Amino acid sequence: MSDHRPTTLLAELTHRCPLHCPYCSNPLELVRSRTELTTEEWQRVFTEARALGVLQLGLSGGEPLLRRDLEALVAHAHALGLYQTLVTSAVGLTRERLETLAGGGLEHVQISLQAATPELAERIAGTRSWEQKLRAAGWVKALGLAFTVNVVLHRANLDQLEQILDLAAELGADRVELANTQYYGWALVNRAALLPTRDQLARAEAVVDRKREEYRGRMQLLYVLPDHYEQYPKPCYGGWGAVYLVVSPDGTVLPCHAAGTLPGLDFATVRERSLEWIWRESPGFQAFRGDSWMREPCRSCPRKHVDFGGCRCQAYALTGEAANADPVCTLSPHHGVIVAALAEGEAAAAVEAEAAAPGAESPPTYIYRAMPRAEPQSPLHSTPLG
Amino acid sequence: MVSISGDSRPALWRLARVDYDPVRQRRVLLYPEGAMLLNDTAAEILSLCDGVRTVDDIAGTLGARYDADVRADVLEYLSRLADRELVRDVRS
């Protein structure tokens, strides 16, 4: 689709979340609930998005179920003709609520699984959630909704991939999205604890190939490659401001969920400007659109319209300059930082393996995602999250 | 790889549906996490993918409509969609 209209909007309805996953794609500085868009503001965003050409709406977060107006948002988006996906941890979902959402036009539910066993899954999520996820999967199936299981892959769960896929099939998933961790935000903070070894990835890829055939026709497998191990970077959402946009809980509109980390870019909010102006005219969306911003080695590269120089956010996080080639690319003069990171991951994995022998499992040490505490601290708000 | 042949009976994936996009004034195939703009020919092919007609039937219907041999094009298009699991051969 090259008509310069967005097809997909990811609505991060809230950053509040019962889970604390150490690879969370939300920014390190989470938006507080009091600045979240209101029901009417979100509905206006959806209306404007539809007029701009958006066809797919992802209702995400944080945990979107924490928005008490989710039903009203789904009903509004359905009336506009948007295909809606709820991206949820399933924590807090009830059958009754799912029935209302399905009745209101929700078509597709994605439930995250962190691992194939409750012990590991809950250690990764930093909270109890296993039983609830399995129950919720049953409701999704019973209501006839399209059902995707999504799994973020990293060193602690890659070796369970086969059991994860069998579990997803048992739960009746139509699709499984396997996304190797992308290292920005929380995941970058936890990179040494998350990076898999090359051996693990090779085994995982063999599992994916085998299982894809086994489940063909029943369950689709999507495997997002671990870009740190690739020769070339991934084409981030088909290029900056090409087909995809994210609206943050406070209404800031971004070309991807991590773009807010880039310095010097002014991203407007839907409280200040129309979505159309932001998409077409705003400096933030213009910044890396097309290829005129590219430097070498991208500028003269025959792949520049294949991968668009990779990820701007990763280029900034790892080289200090957003306009550099994504250092994942083996042609990047900064590729050494990736090589070093992989070595760091292998070394950390080796230390873990040594600590684990014999028999005892050694959990990786994660820095869990958490909301900053509300301040000033009142006695009513002093209970730690989780 | 999925092989689609003349006697395959293609049907759209249960979770995919054809809709009309008034913004682009085009028909569009919608499915979980995806959208594909359809040209008129593609939309006509998909409208005939009912799990009963064979690929040869579909090619015959469209061929008569356009007075042209479209079998190779129909086969190629449906094979591409089948490979992405958007179309299934219900015969298999």
Walkthrough of the structure:
The complex is a heterodimer of chains A (386) and B (92). Chain A has 14 helices and 9 strands. With 386 residues, chain A is α/β, with parallel strands linked by helices. In chain A, strands 7-6-5-4-3-2-1-8-9 form a 9-stranded mixed β-sheet. The longest helix of chain A is centred in the last third of the chain and has 21 residues. Chain A is globular. The termini of chain A are far apart. The C terminus of chain A is likely disordered. Chain B has 92 residues and is of the alpha+beta class. The two termini of chain B are 14 Å apart. In chain B, α2 packs across α3. Chain B is 36% helix and 24% strand. Chain B contains 3 helices and 5 strands, in the order ββββαααβ. Chain B is globular. Chains A and B meet through α1 of A and β3 and β4 of B.
